[in-house]
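Page 37, top half.
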Amino acid sequence: MRMGVLAMQGAYKEHISILDDLDVEAVEIRNKEDLKDIDGLIIPGGESTTMGKLINTLDLYDDLKEKIEGGLPVWGTCAGMILLAKNIYNDDTKHLATMDIEVMRNAYGRQLGSFYVKGEVKGINNEVEMVFIRAPYIKEVGEGVEVLSKVDGNIVAARQKNMLVTSFHPELTNDLTMHKYFLEMVKNLVYTKDYIMQ
C-alpha cells in the first residue's frame, strides 16, 4: 500500500512518521507526478487558506478533485477537513469542496483554542486521543454523511463514501487508532473495487 500525504504545509511529517511506524509506504505529495499509484491520501492539519492557495499554485487542484470524486480514499484532519468541505460557515471560499459538510473554522475560539480529550468514534472499540488546535467542527452534514464522533455536542469526525474527516489531530499523539481505521478503510475500498486505481 502506498499512502500519499499532502506535503506543502502543516503536520505532514507527523503523519508520515506514523505511517512509517505502521510499515506503510508514505509518499510526499507536492506535484502531479507524486499522485501516481497511490492507494489513499491524507490531507494534514495546518493553515487551510495557505494550503488551498498552494494546491492551485502548484496546479494540483483539478487532479486532486478528480481523483477524490473518482473514489480515491482521502482523510482530512483539521485544515484538511476544511479543504474537503463543500461549505464553510460565513465564508464563500471553496477549496476542493468534495464532501457534503458545512464546517465552522476556528470554531472553539481563543479560550479553547487548543485542548485534549479522549472520545468515542463509531466503529472503534477503545476511546481515541483527540488533540484540538484552533480546530473547526462540522456544523451541518448532508445526506449520506455518517457522523462518527461528537465532542460537547459538536461533530468532530465524519465519513462520506471514500472521504474521512476529523477536527482533531491524531498525528500529534501516540495513538495509532485513527490511522489504522483509515488504512482499513482504504483496504476495504480498494479490495472491493469500489475504487479502481488508474
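Page 37, bottom half:
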Amino acid sequence: MKKVLLLIPLHRTGGIASWGQKFYQTYQNSDIKLIAVDNAPNRSNKAGMLERIISGLVATKRILRSIREQSNKNTIDIIHTTTSGSIGSYRDILIGRFCKQRKIKSILHCHYGNISNVLESRGVIRFLTLKALSYYDQIWVLDRKSFDYLKNLNRINGDIKLIPNSIEVNDNLKITPKAFRNIAFIGNLIPDKGIFELVEAVKRVKHYVRLHIVGDGTPEVINNIKKIAGEDLNSKIILYGRLSNRKAVMFMKSIDILALPTYMRAEAFPISILEAMSIGKLVISTKRAAIQDMLTGLDGSPCGIFVREQNIDDIANAITWCIENTPKADLLCSKAYEKVYNSYRIEVVYNLYTACYQELLKA
C-alpha cells in the first residue's frame, strides 16, 4: 500500500481545515493510505502580522520535525501539503526542499484564488510564492484563471492540475418552483464579501423581498449593516448571527436565493455556493476566483447570475429579474444542480485526487 503524508489543519476551523478534515475522514482507496500531519499554527483568529510570522515560524519547525519522524517511520511515497499562500509560502519552500532532498513525490495544494495577482505584484510574497511553486511535482489550483496563468509561466516545472473542492450531492433532486423573494447571505460578515452592497441593493428592490443574514461579524460591521438597513431592519432585512454549519445548511433549504457579491482579495472556492447549488437554490455572485467556474453550466452558459463587483444596481437588478422571470430562474437552479452533480460531487472529485496520486506514483 502506498502512503500519502497529508499536511492539513487538524485543530482549526476555516476553508482549508473543513476540506482537509473531511477529506482525511472520508477518502478511501485500497491502494493508498493517508497519514495526517497538522500544519496549522497556534494563533488567534485576530492575529496581527507579527503574531502570524512568529506562530508560522514555530509551526514550520514543528511540521518539519513531524515530517522527518513520519518519513523515518514509514516509507512515504507522496507528501501532499495544503497552503493559503502569503507568508505561509516560506513553510511551503522548506517542505518542498525536504521532498527534493528525500526524493519524495510532492503536491502543493493551493487553496487560494489570487495566484495571478500575487505573481504579478512585487515584493517578498511574490518571491516566496514563485520559489515554493518551483519545488513541487504537482501544483493543484482551484480556479481556471490560476490554472491558465501557471500553465503559461515558464518558471514552473511542476504539473499544474485544476482540482476543485467537492460536496455531497443527493441523486435526482427535484427542483421546485420558487417565488425568489427570500434571499440569504450566509458566511462571515466581512465588508469585502459585499454585505454592505447587498443590504443596500435589497432596499432598492421594488418587490416584496426579505434578506436573511446568517453569520458573525465585528460590532463595527454589524452596526454598519443596521445603519444601512434603517427602518427595514427586522422586517425586510433580518440579522440571525452565527449558526452552526448544520443549522446554516438547514436554513439554506428555506430560502430561494443565496447572494454572495464578494470582492474579497483572498476569495477562493466558497463552499456556500456549492451547498446552494446542491439543493437547487439560485446563486447571485461575482466572477471572483473559482466562482466563475462554479456558476458556468455544463453547456458553457451561466447557471447562476453574475454581478459586477461593488455594484449595487447589478445586485438589485439580478434579484428583480428572478422575481419577474421565475421560470427562467428555476431553469438556472436546475442547471446549477446538474453542474454540481457532474463536476463537484464528492465521488467525482475524489476520483480526480486518486488519478493525480496514481500519476505521481507511476512517474
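Margin note: DSSP finds 14 helices and twelve strands in the chain.
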